[in-house]
Amino acid sequence: MSEGEHTIISKIPRERLNQIAARKLTALAVPVRLAADRETLEGELLFQGQVLHPASGAPIARAHFVVVGHDRLRFTEPPLSALDPIPFYDAERLSALEQRVVEELGRRAGLLQDLAARMRALGLEPGFDADRLALRAVAKTPAHAFELFAGPEGLRITRVAPVGGRPFEVPASFRRLDLARYHALGELEAELAQAAPELERLAGERRERVPAPPGGGGLEATPPPRNALTLSALVERFGGDAMLAPNAAVEVLREFEFGGTRYRFVATREVGTAFRARVIGPSGDLWDERFDLAAFPGTREVVAAALGAAQPAPQPGGAPARIAEPHAGEIWVMNVVVEAQGPDEVRYVGTDIDGRPYGAARVLKRAEFEAVFASDRGGWRLLVLVDQVQEGSVIYRQLDRQRQPIGAPRKMASSILVANFVPEAASA
User: Fold this and answer.
1) Using CA atoms, how far apart are residues 304 and 397, in angstroms rounded to an integer?
2) How far is CA 375 from CA 34, 340, 379, in A?
3) Which residue ranges make up each domain of the chain?
4) For residue 370, what is the enclosing H or E element?
5) Fewer Cβ neighbours under 10 Å: the N or C end of the chain?
6) Rounded Cα gap, residues 410 and 428, in angstroms
7) Residue spans of alpha helices (H) in 259-347
8) pLDDT per residue over 265-304, tens digit each?
9) What is the rounded CA–CA span in Å between residue 160 and residue 409?
């Protein structure tokens, strides 16, 4: 889009852009709707088998998207969320739009192959991050280990682990590195060592900008508007055993006030009992996670954790319960129950902290299951290492059977962690 076209589009009201986009997507048989903010147009593409997951090769059946402008869509879930927005307005058929997604994945794969070759020539050992459609490598200096991600935007430092110190995340605004500038690994390591003090300063400034939870007042639910359709009204009229249609769209809203500021909880059903939820404050999202309904600890608990205002739940008799809190460096454990296993596959289901199965059963290839889950007293368990605790969330890494970290760091709400995992020290 040229600068002149962009200027014209920016002057068109958002509502009109949504109308233009909705008309075209409806013509392609793609249903759309307004998101919780009542401004963003969103929907879901159903693929016909051409779009394959870049890691497993399995077909991707569907993908949630939001509309950008009036003529492009941006996917919101990995791995497709790593792609640039896909133009759709000139597509004559849905199959043509699907083909564009396939071609964009192919272009990204070609770029990553080229980057991987250059990284290996430099002496780095790149690994593939399927969620981000990027390459990951680690460069070490005598004082630090640097996690690097390479993609279309260049080489980015994402995380720094000082020797004997606490790891920290690097702000995305920090400058990208150009692989072509380095002729030997030592040159890259020297620049990383030189940048380390600046990276630590930026990370410290970022922590200082995060406001502390406001004191006093507690967390209070805000009553719904008088004309709102509440869940209690539905139960009253239809009964508590009434069912939702299997694929019906559900969006649940609840508002809270804390320290004089209002926060909104929004949960959107994806499929079955799988939901995606957000806690939204004046400055944007404070929490954003997917979960199974059976593992969800409760709206108030999640909002309180996101605000750093979580309170211990009372036990019968009035004594406060002791809830374990995660700390950096701890290993937490989730036990799983194996329902069936054969020579090639294992079917298993997770358990909550009381040992009760929850959520849908999952199936893994036996070799993959045995590489990730550790055998323990006749059962199996999943281990995660807590790297950081921040803003009601934890940054963690999954551990393999040898207790070594695997994959990229991930983020989880602290409330979800304590609902489904226990500290290893307390699981004996």
Assistant:
1) 24
2) 46, 15, 6
3) 3-110, 125-209, 219-306, 331-426
4) helix 366-372
5) C
6) 26
7) 299-306
8) 999 887 777 788 888 876 667 777 777 776 677 888 788 8
9) 12
